[in-house]
Amino acid sequence: MTDANSPSAVAKHKKYLFPAVAMYYQEPIALVRGEGSYVWDDTGKKYLDAFGGVLTVSVGHANPKVVSAIVEQVKKISHTSTLYANGPQGDLAEKLAATTPGNLKKFFFTSSGTEANETAMNAARHATGRMELVVLRHSYSGRSAQTLTACGQHGWKKLPPLVPGIHHAHAPYCYRCPFNLEYPSCGIKCAQDIEELIQTETSGEIAAFMAETIIGSGGFIVPPPGYFEKASAIARKYGGLFISDEVQTAWGRTGEHWWGIQHWDAQPDIMVSAKGMGNGTPVAMTIATPEVADKFPGITFATFGGNPVSMAASLSTMAVIEEENLLQNCKTTGAYLGARFAELKEKHPLIGDARGLGMMQALELVEDRKTKTPAAAATMKVFEETKRRGVLIGKGGVYGNVIRTGLMLNAGKSQVDELVEALDAGLSVAVN
Ligand SMILES: Cc1ncc(COP(=O)(O)O)c(C=O)c1O
Protein backbone atom coordinates (compact mmCIF):
# COMPACT_ATOMS: atom_id res chain seq x y z
CA MET A 1 0.00 0.00 0.00
CA THR A 2 1.43 3.39 -1.03
CA ASP A 3 0.98 6.28 1.42
CA ALA A 4 1.97 9.93 1.05
CA ASN A 5 5.46 9.26 2.44
CA SER A 6 6.35 6.14 0.52
CA PRO A 7 8.03 6.29 -2.89
CA SER A 8 5.61 6.77 -5.74
CA ALA A 9 4.89 4.20 -8.42
CA VAL A 10 7.02 6.27 -10.81
CA ALA A 11 9.97 6.26 -8.38
CA LYS A 12 9.67 2.48 -7.95
CA HIS A 13 9.40 2.02 -11.71
CA LYS A 14 12.64 3.96 -12.14
CA LYS A 15 14.37 2.14 -9.30
CA TYR A 16 13.37 -1.45 -9.99
CA LEU A 17 12.50 -1.86 -13.66
CA PHE A 18 14.91 -2.31 -16.56
CA PRO A 19 15.76 1.23 -17.73
CA ALA A 20 14.78 0.14 -21.23
CA VAL A 21 11.19 -0.13 -20.01
CA ALA A 22 10.92 3.60 -20.54
CA MET A 23 7.99 5.79 -19.57
CA TYR A 24 6.49 8.64 -21.57
CA TYR A 25 7.08 12.30 -20.53
CA GLN A 26 9.87 14.27 -18.83
CA GLU A 27 7.95 13.82 -15.61
CA PRO A 28 6.34 10.40 -16.04
CA ILE A 29 2.91 9.74 -14.59
CA ALA A 30 1.37 6.76 -12.83
CA LEU A 31 -2.20 5.96 -13.79
CA VAL A 32 -4.45 4.78 -11.01
CA ARG A 33 -7.96 4.86 -12.45
CA GLY A 34 -9.80 5.00 -15.74
CA GLU A 35 -13.39 5.59 -16.78
CA GLY A 36 -14.52 5.76 -20.39
CA SER A 37 -12.25 8.10 -22.35
CA TYR A 38 -10.56 9.47 -19.22
CA VAL A 39 -7.82 8.39 -16.81
CA TRP A 40 -6.54 9.80 -13.51
CA ASP A 41 -2.98 9.87 -12.21
CA ASP A 42 -1.84 9.34 -8.63
CA THR A 43 -2.06 13.06 -7.87
CA GLY A 44 -5.73 13.06 -8.90
CA LYS A 45 -5.15 14.85 -12.22
CA LYS A 46 -7.62 13.88 -14.95
CA TYR A 47 -6.57 13.29 -18.58
CA LEU A 48 -8.34 12.57 -21.84
CA ASP A 49 -6.75 9.30 -22.92
CA ALA A 50 -6.29 9.90 -26.64
CA PHE A 51 -3.87 7.02 -27.06
CA GLY A 52 -5.48 4.24 -25.02
CA GLY A 53 -2.24 2.41 -24.35
CA VAL A 54 -1.46 2.32 -28.09
CA LEU A 55 -5.01 1.69 -29.32
CA THR A 56 -5.57 -1.05 -26.79
CA VAL A 57 -8.53 0.21 -24.79
CA SER A 58 -11.29 0.02 -27.37
CA VAL A 59 -14.59 0.67 -25.63
CA GLY A 60 -13.44 2.83 -22.75
CA HIS A 61 -11.58 2.25 -19.50
CA ALA A 62 -13.48 0.14 -16.97
CA ASN A 63 -16.31 -0.36 -19.44
CA PRO A 64 -19.07 -1.72 -17.16
CA LYS A 65 -20.06 -4.54 -19.55
CA VAL A 66 -16.47 -5.69 -20.02
CA VAL A 67 -15.74 -5.39 -16.29
CA SER A 68 -18.79 -7.46 -15.47
CA ALA A 69 -17.83 -10.15 -18.02
CA ILE A 70 -14.32 -10.31 -16.51
CA VAL A 71 -15.58 -10.48 -12.92
CA GLU A 72 -18.15 -13.17 -13.73
CA GLN A 73 -15.53 -15.24 -15.51
CA VAL A 74 -12.95 -14.87 -12.73
CA LYS A 75 -15.55 -16.15 -10.27
CA LYS A 76 -15.93 -19.30 -12.39
CA ILE A 77 -12.44 -20.15 -13.65
CA SER A 78 -9.55 -17.90 -14.65
CA HIS A 79 -7.06 -20.33 -16.15
CA THR A 80 -7.14 -23.44 -18.27
CA SER A 81 -4.13 -23.32 -20.69
CA THR A 82 -4.64 -24.67 -24.18
CA LEU A 83 -4.68 -28.25 -22.86
CA TYR A 84 -8.34 -27.94 -21.93
CA ALA A 85 -11.20 -26.45 -23.90
CA ASN A 86 -13.09 -23.56 -22.37
CA GLY A 87 -16.45 -22.05 -23.25
CA PRO A 88 -15.46 -18.41 -23.87
CA GLN A 89 -12.65 -19.47 -26.24
CA GLY A 90 -14.98 -21.53 -28.42
CA ASP A 91 -17.66 -18.82 -28.33
CA LEU A 92 -15.13 -16.14 -29.32
CA ALA A 93 -13.78 -18.19 -32.22
CA GLU A 94 -17.32 -18.84 -33.44
CA LYS A 95 -18.23 -15.16 -33.21
CA LEU A 96 -15.02 -14.01 -34.87
CA ALA A 97 -15.41 -16.48 -37.71
CA ALA A 98 -18.57 -14.60 -38.71
CA THR A 99 -16.58 -11.35 -39.13
CA THR A 100 -13.35 -12.49 -40.78
CA PRO A 101 -12.81 -11.98 -44.50
CA GLY A 102 -12.66 -14.99 -46.82
CA ASN A 103 -11.92 -18.37 -45.35
CA LEU A 104 -10.02 -17.22 -42.24
CA LYS A 105 -11.75 -19.63 -39.91
CA LYS A 106 -9.10 -21.23 -37.68
CA PHE A 107 -7.81 -19.47 -34.57
CA PHE A 108 -4.85 -19.70 -32.24
CA PHE A 109 -5.34 -17.44 -29.22
CA THR A 110 -2.23 -16.24 -27.37
CA SER A 111 -1.42 -13.28 -25.15
CA SER A 112 0.64 -10.72 -27.08
CA GLY A 113 0.99 -9.38 -30.59
CA THR A 114 4.58 -10.60 -30.60
CA GLU A 115 3.46 -14.16 -29.96
CA ALA A 116 0.70 -13.92 -32.55
CA ASN A 117 3.06 -12.59 -35.25
CA GLU A 118 5.62 -15.24 -34.36
CA THR A 119 2.91 -17.87 -34.81
CA ALA A 120 1.87 -16.33 -38.13
CA MET A 121 5.42 -16.28 -39.51
CA ASN A 122 6.00 -19.87 -38.47
CA ALA A 123 2.61 -20.94 -39.85
CA ALA A 124 3.50 -19.46 -43.25
CA ARG A 125 6.85 -21.25 -43.23
CA HIS A 126 5.24 -24.59 -42.38
CA ALA A 127 2.37 -24.17 -44.84
CA THR A 128 4.62 -23.34 -47.78
CA GLY A 129 7.72 -25.30 -46.86
CA ARG A 130 9.72 -22.13 -47.57
CA MET A 131 11.75 -19.99 -45.21
CA GLU A 132 11.96 -16.47 -46.60
CA LEU A 133 9.68 -13.62 -45.63
CA VAL A 134 9.15 -10.16 -47.10
CA VAL A 135 8.25 -7.49 -44.56
CA LEU A 136 8.13 -3.70 -44.61
CA ARG A 137 10.53 -0.94 -43.63
CA HIS A 138 9.08 1.32 -40.91
CA SER A 139 7.03 -1.57 -39.51
CA TYR A 140 6.84 -2.93 -35.96
CA SER A 141 6.14 -6.59 -35.34
CA GLY A 142 7.13 -7.37 -31.76
CA ARG A 143 10.08 -8.10 -29.53
CA SER A 144 10.94 -11.79 -30.03
CA ALA A 145 14.01 -12.59 -32.12
CA GLN A 146 12.02 -13.18 -35.29
CA THR A 147 9.61 -10.27 -34.92
CA LEU A 148 12.45 -7.93 -33.91
CA THR A 149 14.29 -8.93 -37.07
CA ALA A 150 11.13 -8.13 -38.99
CA CYS A 151 10.87 -4.64 -37.44
CA GLY A 152 11.71 -1.88 -39.85
CA GLN A 153 12.74 0.76 -37.29
CA HIS A 154 16.27 1.10 -35.92
CA GLY A 155 15.04 2.44 -32.58
CA TRP A 156 13.40 -0.84 -31.67
CA LYS A 157 16.05 -3.27 -32.84
CA LYS A 158 19.15 -2.74 -30.78
CA LEU A 159 20.18 -6.34 -31.42
CA PRO A 160 21.52 -7.25 -34.85
CA PRO A 161 19.11 -9.21 -37.08
CA LEU A 162 18.85 -12.61 -35.46
CA VAL A 163 16.76 -14.62 -37.87
CA PRO A 164 17.93 -15.07 -41.46
CA GLY A 165 15.64 -14.90 -44.46
CA ILE A 166 13.68 -11.76 -43.55
CA HIS A 167 13.79 -9.08 -46.25
CA HIS A 168 12.55 -5.51 -45.94
CA ALA A 169 10.63 -3.97 -48.83
CA HIS A 170 10.08 -0.24 -49.18
CA ALA A 171 7.15 1.10 -47.19
CA PRO A 172 4.09 2.52 -48.95
CA TYR A 173 4.93 5.87 -47.38
CA CYS A 174 3.41 8.35 -49.82
CA TYR A 175 4.42 11.44 -47.82
CA ARG A 176 8.06 10.36 -48.04
CA CYS A 177 7.88 8.27 -51.19
CA PRO A 178 11.05 6.14 -51.35
CA PHE A 179 11.02 6.64 -55.13
CA ASN A 180 10.18 10.37 -55.06
CA LEU A 181 7.03 9.69 -57.04
CA GLU A 182 3.42 10.70 -56.56
CA TYR A 183 0.28 8.63 -56.35
CA PRO A 184 -1.40 7.63 -58.66
CA SER A 185 1.08 8.36 -61.45
CA CYS A 186 3.66 6.32 -59.48
CA GLY A 187 1.83 3.14 -60.52
CA ILE A 188 2.36 2.05 -56.89
CA LYS A 189 6.05 1.52 -57.50
CA CYS A 190 6.61 0.54 -53.84
CA ALA A 191 4.39 -2.52 -54.36
CA GLN A 192 5.92 -3.28 -57.75
CA ASP A 193 9.40 -3.14 -56.23
CA ILE A 194 8.56 -6.17 -54.07
CA GLU A 195 8.97 -8.25 -57.21
CA GLU A 196 12.54 -7.04 -57.73
CA LEU A 197 13.26 -7.58 -54.03
CA ILE A 198 12.11 -11.19 -54.34
CA GLN A 199 14.04 -11.70 -57.56
CA THR A 200 17.27 -10.21 -56.25
CA GLU A 201 17.31 -10.70 -52.47
CA THR A 202 15.63 -14.07 -52.02
CA SER A 203 15.79 -17.54 -53.51
CA GLY A 204 12.74 -16.56 -55.55
CA GLU A 205 10.51 -18.69 -53.37
CA ILE A 206 9.03 -16.93 -50.39
CA ALA A 207 6.86 -18.12 -47.51
CA ALA A 208 4.96 -14.87 -47.10
CA PHE A 209 4.63 -11.14 -47.44
CA MET A 210 3.73 -9.71 -44.04
CA ALA A 211 2.51 -6.16 -43.52
CA GLU A 212 0.59 -4.00 -41.10
CA THR A 213 -2.58 -2.75 -42.77
CA ILE A 214 -1.64 0.72 -41.55
CA ILE A 215 1.96 0.94 -40.34
CA GLY A 216 1.22 1.86 -36.74
CA SER A 217 4.29 2.49 -34.62
CA GLY A 218 6.00 3.70 -37.80
CA GLY A 219 3.65 6.69 -37.78
CA PHE A 220 0.22 5.57 -39.06
CA ILE A 221 1.41 5.21 -42.64
CA VAL A 222 -1.67 4.44 -44.73
CA PRO A 223 -0.88 2.54 -47.94
CA PRO A 224 -2.52 4.01 -51.06
CA PRO A 225 -5.52 2.41 -52.78
CA GLY A 226 -4.43 -0.62 -54.77
CA TYR A 227 -1.31 -1.27 -52.69
CA PHE A 228 -2.32 -4.51 -51.00
CA GLU A 229 -3.97 -5.85 -54.16
CA LYS A 230 -0.68 -5.45 -56.01
CA ALA A 231 1.69 -6.46 -53.19
CA SER A 232 -0.25 -9.61 -52.26
CA ALA A 233 -0.54 -10.63 -55.95
CA ILE A 234 3.26 -10.37 -56.33
CA ALA A 235 3.77 -12.43 -53.16
CA ARG A 236 1.42 -15.11 -54.51
CA LYS A 237 3.19 -15.13 -57.87
CA TYR A 238 6.30 -16.28 -55.97
CA GLY A 239 4.37 -18.82 -53.90
CA GLY A 240 4.08 -16.65 -50.79
CA LEU A 241 1.11 -16.18 -48.49
CA PHE A 242 -0.19 -12.79 -47.39
CA ILE A 243 -0.07 -12.10 -43.64
CA SER A 244 -2.02 -9.05 -42.53
CA ASP A 245 -0.91 -7.65 -39.16
CA GLU A 246 -4.07 -6.17 -37.68
CA VAL A 247 -2.69 -5.68 -34.19
CA GLN A 248 -3.61 -1.98 -34.32
CA THR A 249 -6.13 -1.82 -37.15
CA ALA A 250 -8.81 -4.34 -36.17
CA TRP A 251 -11.98 -4.02 -34.08
CA GLY A 252 -13.50 -1.34 -36.28
CA ARG A 253 -10.90 1.27 -35.46
CA THR A 254 -10.37 2.22 -39.11
CA GLY A 255 -14.13 2.72 -39.56
CA GLU A 256 -16.94 0.72 -41.15
CA HIS A 257 -15.15 -2.65 -41.18
CA TRP A 258 -14.03 -5.00 -38.43
CA TRP A 259 -10.64 -5.41 -40.11
CA GLY A 260 -8.37 -2.79 -41.63
CA ILE A 261 -7.57 -4.91 -44.65
CA GLN A 262 -11.23 -4.73 -45.69
CA HIS A 263 -10.51 -1.22 -46.99
CA TRP A 264 -8.53 -2.92 -49.75
CA ASP A 265 -9.60 -5.69 -52.08
CA ALA A 266 -6.96 -8.16 -50.89
CA GLN A 267 -7.49 -11.43 -49.09
CA PRO A 268 -5.03 -12.47 -46.35
CA ASP A 269 -4.16 -16.13 -45.77
CA ILE A 270 -3.21 -15.31 -42.21
CA MET A 271 -4.32 -12.41 -40.05
CA VAL A 272 -2.99 -11.33 -36.66
CA SER A 273 -4.57 -9.17 -34.01
CA ALA A 274 -4.13 -8.26 -30.34
CA LYS A 275 -4.31 -4.92 -28.48
CA GLY A 276 -7.91 -3.65 -28.80
CA MET A 277 -9.49 -7.09 -28.83
CA GLY A 278 -9.76 -7.53 -25.06
CA ASN A 279 -10.13 -3.86 -24.07
CA GLY A 280 -6.82 -3.99 -22.19
CA THR A 281 -6.65 -7.63 -21.12
CA PRO A 282 -3.58 -9.46 -22.47
CA VAL A 283 -4.83 -11.29 -25.52
CA ALA A 284 -3.88 -11.90 -29.14
CA MET A 285 -4.69 -14.24 -31.96
CA THR A 286 -3.46 -15.68 -35.21
CA ILE A 287 -6.20 -16.53 -37.71
CA ALA A 288 -5.56 -18.69 -40.73
CA THR A 289 -7.35 -20.53 -43.46
CA PRO A 290 -7.86 -24.22 -42.64
CA GLU A 291 -5.28 -25.11 -45.33
CA VAL A 292 -2.64 -23.10 -43.48
CA ALA A 293 -3.72 -23.95 -39.92
CA ASP A 294 -3.87 -27.68 -40.63
CA LYS A 295 -0.20 -27.69 -41.63
CA PHE A 296 1.01 -26.13 -38.35
CA PRO A 297 2.89 -29.01 -36.75
CA GLY A 298 1.95 -30.24 -33.30
CA ILE A 299 2.00 -30.56 -30.60
CA THR A 300 2.10 -26.92 -29.61
CA PHE A 301 1.03 -25.24 -26.40
CA ALA A 302 0.47 -21.81 -24.83
CA THR A 303 0.13 -21.49 -21.05
CA PHE A 304 -2.00 -18.36 -21.32
CA GLY A 305 -3.44 -19.24 -24.72
CA GLY A 306 -7.21 -18.87 -24.86
CA ASN A 307 -7.23 -17.64 -21.26
CA PRO A 308 -10.91 -17.68 -20.28
CA VAL A 309 -10.81 -14.22 -18.68
CA SER A 310 -9.22 -12.62 -21.76
CA MET A 311 -11.64 -14.54 -23.96
CA ALA A 312 -14.64 -13.31 -21.94
CA ALA A 313 -13.29 -9.75 -22.08
CA SER A 314 -12.87 -10.03 -25.86
CA LEU A 315 -16.37 -11.43 -26.34
CA SER A 316 -17.91 -8.59 -24.36
CA THR A 317 -15.74 -5.99 -26.16
CA MET A 318 -17.09 -7.31 -29.45
CA ALA A 319 -20.63 -7.22 -28.05
CA VAL A 320 -20.23 -3.55 -27.05
CA ILE A 321 -18.84 -2.72 -30.51
CA GLU A 322 -21.93 -4.32 -32.06
CA GLU A 323 -24.53 -2.98 -29.63
CA GLU A 324 -23.22 0.59 -29.83
CA ASN A 325 -22.68 0.48 -33.59
CA LEU A 326 -19.05 1.47 -33.17
CA LEU A 327 -17.88 0.47 -36.65
CA GLN A 328 -20.12 3.28 -37.85
CA ASN A 329 -19.03 5.64 -35.06
CA CYS A 330 -15.40 5.15 -36.06
CA LYS A 331 -16.35 6.05 -39.61
CA THR A 332 -18.33 9.19 -38.79
CA THR A 333 -16.47 10.47 -35.72
CA GLY A 334 -13.23 9.40 -37.40
CA ALA A 335 -14.14 11.50 -40.46
CA TYR A 336 -14.80 14.46 -38.15
CA LEU A 337 -11.42 13.88 -36.46
CA GLY A 338 -9.71 13.71 -39.86
CA ALA A 339 -11.37 16.97 -40.93
CA ARG A 340 -10.31 18.70 -37.72
CA PHE A 341 -6.73 17.48 -38.21
CA ALA A 342 -6.84 18.87 -41.76
CA GLU A 343 -7.86 22.24 -40.23
CA LEU A 344 -4.91 22.03 -37.85
CA LYS A 345 -2.67 21.42 -40.83
CA GLU A 346 -4.02 24.54 -42.53
CA LYS A 347 -3.22 26.57 -39.44
CA HIS A 348 0.17 25.14 -38.37
CA PRO A 349 3.05 25.00 -40.90
CA LEU A 350 4.71 22.57 -38.47
CA ILE A 351 2.34 19.88 -39.71
CA GLY A 352 3.69 18.32 -42.88
CA ASP A 353 1.10 15.59 -43.17
CA ALA A 354 -2.20 14.73 -41.51
CA ARG A 355 -3.25 11.17 -42.21
CA GLY A 356 -5.18 8.20 -40.95
CA LEU A 357 -8.34 6.17 -41.24
CA GLY A 358 -11.27 6.26 -38.83
CA MET A 359 -10.17 6.69 -35.23
CA MET A 360 -6.52 6.13 -36.10
CA GLN A 361 -5.22 9.56 -37.04
CA ALA A 362 -1.74 11.10 -36.97
CA LEU A 363 0.12 14.34 -37.59
CA GLU A 364 3.64 14.26 -38.99
CA LEU A 365 5.64 17.32 -37.90
CA VAL A 366 8.34 18.87 -40.06
CA GLU A 367 10.64 21.85 -39.68
CA ASP A 368 9.99 22.88 -43.25
CA ARG A 369 7.26 21.68 -45.58
CA LYS A 370 9.59 21.72 -48.59
CA THR A 371 12.56 19.85 -47.11
CA LYS A 372 10.32 17.74 -44.83
CA THR A 373 13.05 17.70 -42.19
CA PRO A 374 11.51 15.79 -39.27
CA ALA A 375 10.64 18.05 -36.33
CA ALA A 376 11.38 15.63 -33.48
CA ALA A 377 12.13 18.31 -30.88
CA ALA A 378 8.88 20.14 -31.66
CA THR A 379 7.02 16.85 -31.39
CA MET A 380 8.36 16.46 -27.84
CA LYS A 381 7.18 19.98 -27.01
CA VAL A 382 3.66 19.22 -28.28
CA PHE A 383 3.75 16.08 -26.25
CA GLU A 384 4.62 17.86 -23.00
CA GLU A 385 2.18 20.71 -23.56
CA THR A 386 -0.80 18.46 -24.34
CA LYS A 387 -0.05 16.50 -21.18
CA ARG A 388 0.07 19.73 -19.19
CA ARG A 389 -3.37 20.48 -20.60
CA GLY A 390 -4.69 17.09 -19.57
CA VAL A 391 -4.54 15.15 -22.84
CA LEU A 392 -2.47 12.01 -23.42
CA ILE A 393 -1.33 11.30 -26.97
CA GLY A 394 1.15 8.93 -28.61
CA LYS A 395 4.17 9.44 -30.77
CA GLY A 396 6.04 7.35 -33.27
CA GLY A 397 7.74 7.18 -36.63
CA VAL A 398 11.32 6.26 -37.42
CA TYR A 399 12.27 9.92 -36.99
CA GLY A 400 10.26 10.47 -33.79
CA ASN A 401 8.17 13.20 -35.39
CA VAL A 402 4.69 11.71 -35.67
CA ILE A 403 1.91 12.39 -33.19
CA ARG A 404 -0.36 9.38 -33.07
CA THR A 405 -3.86 9.44 -31.66
CA GLY A 406 -6.22 6.62 -30.84
CA LEU A 407 -9.35 7.84 -29.13
CA MET A 408 -11.71 5.17 -27.83
CA LEU A 409 -13.96 3.60 -30.46
CA ASN A 410 -16.95 5.06 -28.59
CA ALA A 411 -15.52 8.57 -28.25
CA GLY A 412 -17.61 11.40 -29.65
CA LYS A 413 -17.17 14.86 -31.11
CA SER A 414 -16.58 16.41 -27.70
CA GLN A 415 -13.51 14.22 -27.13
CA VAL A 416 -12.29 15.03 -30.66
CA ASP A 417 -12.67 18.75 -29.92
CA GLU A 418 -10.87 18.39 -26.59
CA LEU A 419 -7.99 16.61 -28.31
CA VAL A 420 -7.80 19.15 -31.14
CA GLU A 421 -7.86 22.08 -28.72
CA ALA A 422 -4.90 20.66 -26.77
CA LEU A 423 -2.98 19.90 -29.97
CA ASP A 424 -3.69 23.38 -31.30
CA ALA A 425 -2.20 24.89 -28.13
CA GLY A 426 0.71 22.42 -28.13
CA LEU A 427 1.56 23.18 -31.76
CA SER A 428 1.54 26.93 -31.03
CA VAL A 429 3.90 26.44 -28.08
CA ALA A 430 6.18 24.10 -30.06
CA VAL A 431 7.28 26.76 -32.55
CA ASN A 432 8.42 29.14 -29.79
C1 LIG B 1 1.48 -3.77 -35.55
C2 LIG B 1 2.02 -4.43 -34.31
N1 LIG B 1 2.33 -5.73 -34.37
C3 LIG B 1 2.80 -6.37 -33.28
C4 LIG B 1 2.98 -5.71 -32.08
C5 LIG B 1 3.51 -6.45 -30.90
O1 LIG B 1 2.50 -6.57 -29.95
P1 LIG B 1 2.83 -6.81 -28.39
O2 LIG B 1 3.41 -5.55 -27.86
O3 LIG B 1 1.48 -7.14 -27.81
O4 LIG B 1 3.75 -7.97 -28.33
C6 LIG B 1 2.65 -4.36 -31.99
C7 LIG B 1 2.83 -3.61 -30.72
O5 LIG B 1 2.75 -2.41 -30.64
C8 LIG B 1 2.16 -3.70 -33.14
O6 LIG B 1 1.84 -2.41 -33.11
Question: What attributes does this structure have?
Answer:
13 helices; binds pyridoxal-5'-phosphate; globular; about 425 residues; alpha/beta; 4-stranded mixed sheet; single chain; 7-stranded mixed sheet
Textual characterization of the structure:
The structure is a single chain. The protein has 13 helices and 15 strands. The protein has 432 residues and is of the alpha/beta class. The relative contact order is 0.15. The longest helix has 22 residues, at 326-347. The protein has helices spanning 9-16, 52-55, 64-76, 87-97, 113-128, 145-150, 189-201, 227-237, 290-293, 308-323, 326-347, 376-388, 413-430; strands at residues 31-35, 38-41, 46-49, 106-110, 132-136, 166-169, 206-212, 241-245, 270-273, 284-288, 351-357, 360-365, 391-392, 394-396, 402-405. The mean pLDDT is 97. The protein has a seven-stranded mixed β-sheet with strand order 4-10-9-8-7-5-6, sandwiched between helices. It has a four-stranded mixed β-sheet with strand order 1-2-3-13. The protein has a four-stranded antiparallel β-sheet with strand order 11-12-15-14. The protein is globular, with a radius of gyration of 21 Å. The protein binds pyridoxal-5'-phosphate. Pyridoxal-5'-phosphate binds next to α5. Residues 54, 112-114, 117, 140-142, 212, 216-217, 245, 247-248, 274 line the site of pyridoxal-5'-phosphate.
